[in-house]
Amino acid sequence: MVRSPLSALLVAAACAAPGAALAADAPVWKVSGSMRVRYETVNNQVRPNLNTHDDVVSLRTTLFAEGKFGDVRVGGEIYDSRIWGANRRSPVSTNEVNVFEPVQAYIAVDRKTEDFGKVTLQAGRFMLNLGSRRLVAADDYRNTTNGYTGVRLDAAPAGLKTTLIYVMPQMRRPDDLSGVLDNKQALDKESQDAVLWGGVIAKPKAIGDATLEGSYFRFDEKDQSGRPTRNRHLDSFSARIILDPKPGAWDYELEAIGQVGKVRRGTGAADPQLDVQAGFVHVDAGYTFVHPWKPRLSAELDYATGDKAGGDFTRFDTLFGMRRADFGPSGVFAAIHRANIVTPGLRLEVAPSPRWEAFVLGRPMWLATAEDSFATTGVRDARGASGKYAGAMYEGRVRYWVVPNRLRFEGNALMVDKGRFLRQAPNAPKTGDETYVSLNLTATY
């Protein structure tokens, strides 16, 4: 189904792929898939206006196929994401449900060149994981993922790994609560009312073994019929340096993201348009010990700006960035993300064998701005009278291959030890400390 002029252009480009390349070689096919069942339970939900307790079961099934015809690849992937046990006060949305959706349906051409290295041009529907994945990602912990429709170009001029995109993020359907709870099926939509473009450039071994990376993304959205928006027009600039872990050595990562542009104060057509001045910083440094368990101990810090009344809009927007790698799980927890937060952390990771790995993490959490809502909790004190200390979060995860490369178990557990803000803010639920557990079993083939 073609929904925009750009979609029509992509279909035409796919049909115009060189027939000689398709006919010259026998096709090589790749087929894979997965099925993940998850049980989640949350007690003393920290987000307001939701159940204090929830038990939800989710199932995500995927099927991917790609055929290679010489230089041309044609691929597609179906995601089928469903839930059971939720009700109208459960924290569920299209983040959990997306039934029988063709998230990927693309054509790509790969060519080796003398000046630009391997060049790949991809068009259609596909998933994206770019740079640090803090702005553009295909979420994996979440029961659904992010899909994008458009074009992608990869090349390596002068040894610079470069990715350029022009895409329309897919808007998951149905997006009404009744449709989500009933696991209804409706095809996702994309349109030129929401467009993301930009790119990432990385230089491996720029400083010793460290990689330098820079990115720029522009996101433009406007209201659609029945879908009012914040009318965001955001420019996000990122600079990053990263040295990967290895035994007996230090590693580190530093990323800074600046964000400017314009955004409406609310979703009403008469709401004022505000200038944006926001930012985010992530820092971590770690050491991997020479030991059979490969223990890595690291310290980290995340800072994302919040908003104050009046003047510029200063709350950081992570766009389509991932959550799990930096913060706690999504799912029915989904309380911590990179917005209005200051949080140092101490993390210990181990990998005793190829079959299992684990980590534990502790982090105190403060609001960057006392008057704004904390992270993605929705808890707010507009007067700033509840202080900035939100509390501390302690979490752990273990993964174990029950059948190597075929069946994997994953367990997640966390506790939010509520601080003054999460106890005293006007709309904070009057409950005890929050706990969350998820048990996952994933089969791959």
Write the layout of secondary structure elements.
Elements lengths: L4 H11 L3 H6 L3 E16 L9 E17 L2 E13 L13 E16 L3 E10 L21 E8 L5 E9 L7 H5 L12 E14 L2 E12 L11 E11 L5 E16 L8 E16 L7 E9 L36 E13 L2 E11 L22 E15 L3 E12 L1 H5 L9 E11 L1
Antiparallel strand pairs: 1-2, 1-18, 2-3, 3-4, 4-5, 5-6, 6-7, 7-8, 8-9, 9-10, 10-11, 11-12, 12-13, 13-14, 14-15, 15-16, 16-17, 17-18
Characterize the structure shown:
With 445 residues, this protein is mainly β. It has a single domain, classed as Beta Barrel (Porin). It has helices at 5-15, 19-24, 177-181, 420-424; strands at residues 28-43, 53-69, 72-84, 98-113, 117-126, 148-155, 161-169, 194-207, 210-221, 233-243, 249-264, 273-288, 296-304, 341-353, 356-366, 389-403, 407-418, 434-444. It has an 18-stranded antiparallel beta barrel. The chain is globular, with a radius of gyration of 22 Å. The model is unreliable at 1-23 (pLDDT under 50).
Q: List the helices and strands in order.
A: HHEEEEEEEHEEEEEEEEEEHE
Examine the coordinates and then state which fold CATH places here, giving the name of the CATH topology. Answer: Porin
Proper CATH architecture: Beta Barrel
Strand-pairing-aware structural class: mainly beta
> Helix tally?
4
* Overall pLDDT score: 94
